[in-house]
Design goal:
mainly alpha; single chain
């Protein structure tokens, strides 16, 4: 039951967390006649031929490929460490859950550290790839 719950929760997060805002943005940009900032950024970009020929492209919602590979590598590394920790807990504590208070708090500390590591490395990579915290307006 818990695997189904996690899978369903992740599906909702992906479909609503990404799909809904992207759909709203796509409708907004489709309804927009022109935008000088968009024109400056995308009219002559490579790889956007689906919007039309360079210089006369229709305005549209563009999501540039980013740092997904780095985030997947960091996430996968953290996942492998977590699975290793669970295997060690199974061997030395008799299961993934339970055990002494020291083992429980140690596991909590490792998992919180991995979470903060993932967030920190992803933020660092995002900031360093954009040249700083220059958010588009």
């Amino acid at each position: 039951a818990s695997v189904g719950n996690v899978t369903g929760s992740n599906c909702v997060n992906v479909f609503l967390g990404l799909g809904l805002p992207w759909m709203i943005a796509a409708f907004k940009w489709r309804a927009t006649e022109s935008d000088p900032v968009w024109d400056e950024k995308y009219q002559y970009d490579e790889g956007l031929d689906w919007l039309g020929p360079k210089g006369s492209r229709k305005i549209g919602f563009v999501v540039e490929a980013g740092s997904l590979g780095f985030s997947v590598a960091v996430f996968s590394s953290c996942a492998v460490i977590t699975i290793g920790m669970l295997a060690l807990r199974r061997k030395f504590c008799g299961g993934e859950l339970g055990g002494s208070a020291r083992a429980k708090w140690g596991s909590v500390a490792v998992l919180i550290f991995l979470w903060l590591l993932y967030i920190g490395l992803s933020a660092w990579q995002s900031i360093s790839s954009t040249g700083g915290m220059n958010c588009p307006r």
